[in-house]
Amino acid sequence: MNDLTHFRTPLLKTPFHARVEAANRLNRWGPWAGYMAALCLGDMDMEYTAIRNGASVYDLCPMVKYRITGAEAGEYLNRLTVRNAAKLAVGSVQYTAWCDDEGKVLDDGTLFRHGAQDYLICCQERHLPWLTASAIGFEVEVREVTEEIAALSLQGPCAATVLEAAGFDVWGLKPFRMQRFGFEGGEICVSRTGFTGDLGYELWMQPDQALPFWDHLMAAGAPWGIRAIGSDALNLARIEAGFIITNMDFIPADQALREDRSRSPLELGLGWMIDWDKGHFTGRRALLAERVRGSDWALVGLDVPGNISAEGSILYHGKKREAGFITAAAWSPSTKRSVAIAQVQAKYRGGEDLWVEIYALRELQYVKLMLQVSVVERPFFNPPRKRATPPGRF
Fold first, then answer.
1. Mean per-residue pLDDT for 371-389?
2. Dihedral (CA of 42, 44, 45, 48) sign
3. How far apart are CA 113 and CA 109, in angstroms?
4. Alpha-carbon separation of residue 310 from 169, 196, 346 (angstroms)
5. Range(s) within the chain of domains with CATH label 3.30.1360.120
6. Fold held by 3-61+149-229
7. Does pTM surpass 0.85?
8. What is the C-alpha to C-alpha distance for residues 272 and 265, in angstroms, rounded to an integer?
């Protein structure tokens, strides 16, 4: 693109854009990492239904991707991330996070190990300066490859059946594992991963394979009602799954303008992934100190009475003292209840006498509701099919 005219197209189009645009009857778009992303193509309820009852396709291309290669790639990733990358087998994937020196989360994402010295990080935000600075002293190359990889998310109980119809036998593929298949002279990498908390796969390919593969997959999935979806339906599914999103449920430490806005993995419910015994990693000393003294905040799941979304609402202890705030909330069609993800002061993490203040819009007037909430385990929706191997036929 001519540098003098880049302002005419401020958002890039993904390799799948032509097909998504044709399906986007509402013409609803939003920005995602510099790309145009569909928010809702036609009917959000039907798109959500495809995730939970059929098969859904979502354009993942804007996901930021970094290729990590070199003789010390594993050692570098062990220093960078809180999990033990050395334990990640070739052909496997792990959900992970990385912190600054103060133990505050910069981002979370998925780490794919394609070879002994070949990794791929997929995340929400761009971190190339941090990643390259962290690579000093390691025999490793860090390169952004976002535009070099096209990706689709195929989610729903019929996902494996659709892939079988498309010629990909994934019945033996376990969660967080990868498998490669031939397609029109090239390869498609299929990983059993996703962001819906359901049975699902992510499909990785060269950009020039994108449109032929889309057409092939949609034709194969037609008998199962395969449907392209937008971010709105995906967001509802991820809330049910209890997943968190950067800049929605937490602020990356390098973007926080106020010191008290950043959060540690312990405060975001990610303490389970920290490998304390693998050796030093960025933020380890600060996190060890926090583990001793205790955290200031906690991320919790909430049950909210009624059917009004509590998104953006403030939480109170005893109806008087501010105790936290809700970062994501929705009426869950699958569980038939109103659920929320919230940050609360650690002393209120048990949920005793915890209330939410909701301003509900009712015929152009706002009505103030003060409702007592309960702290519950996440995920809110946790179907056995997402882990079953082989998955059931639907």
1. 97
2. positive
3. 13
4. 42, 21, 20
5. 3-61+149-229
6. Gyrase A; domain 2 (3.30.1360)
7. yes
8. 9
